[in-house]
Amino acid sequence: MKVFVDTANLAQIEELASLGILDGVTTNPTLLAKEGVAGKQARIRHYQKICELVNGDVSAEVLSTTYEDMLREAQELASIHPSIVVKIPMTEAGLQAMRTLKSQNIRTNCTLVFSSGQALLAAKAGAYYVSPFIGRLDDRTQSGIQTLQEIVEIYRNYQFSTQVLAASIRSPLHVVQCALIGVDAITAPYKVLKELVRHPLTDLGLEKFLSDYRAIEEEATSEAKTQVPS
Ligand code: E4P
To answer: Is residue 113 helix, strand or coil?
Structure first.
């Protein structure tokens, strides 16, 4: 299972990449806005920096909404770096754009997917990834995990090559549930990935191991001091 971080923050990406657990990055316009990345040139520079920090796919989203504009923008984004996967929203124009981009060998990530029916269409359109937003479904008392299960099953039934990228993940539990379902990839916020590392029993266990060993070392040192050579 690929692990992506859902952020546009360069320090967070650099830190997680240094742990050796990162397979890529997903961004969206909200995340770019959070980092104060304004204007086309600034966006291009920012995506370039992300691509240099991580060895893996980097999802960059179009801001356009019409078929022609999405195509033009997707081509520009894809030309920034070979790691770029262009995020296209699940709309009618988006479906058309994904089909055309596939024929131009431009990889797409179909974003804002909230149902298994939408995911089926994304696969038919030739999306490279489909991003079901599980947390936002949970927020509306619909089970994101159940929707994800349906998508994985449908894709298996027909051997669609589109990869399921579980998005809008809110907790380490979501990550584990996604892994149990067998998704191809997850994208989680920095905080969730950091929380995955930790367990209170790991911290307690490490503290005990080190204090036990420190005690025996101190004992050995004090014994050596009392044994005065004759
Ligand atoms: C996916 O690619 C989106 O960027 C993201 O996962 C949305 O998550 P949110 O619901 O936490 O904003």
So the answer is: strand
Catalytic residue (choose from 2, 87, 191, 208): 87
Quickly state the pLDDT bin for 225 (edges 50, 70, 90). Answer: confident
Atom of ligand 1 nearest to the CA of 170: 11
Based on the domain organization, do 27 and 57 belong to the same domain? yes
Compute the distance from residue 133 Cα to the ligand 1 centre, in Å: 7
111 and 96 assigned to the same domain:
yes
Q: Verify that 53 and 131 share a domain, yes or no.
A: yes
Is the same domain home to 212 and 162?
Answer: no
Ligand 1 within 6 A of 167 CB?
yes
Q: Is the pLDDT of residue 27 over 90?
A: yes
Q: Closest by alpha carbon to 104, among 72, 140, 64?
A: 72
Helix (H) or strand (E) holding 200: helix 200-226
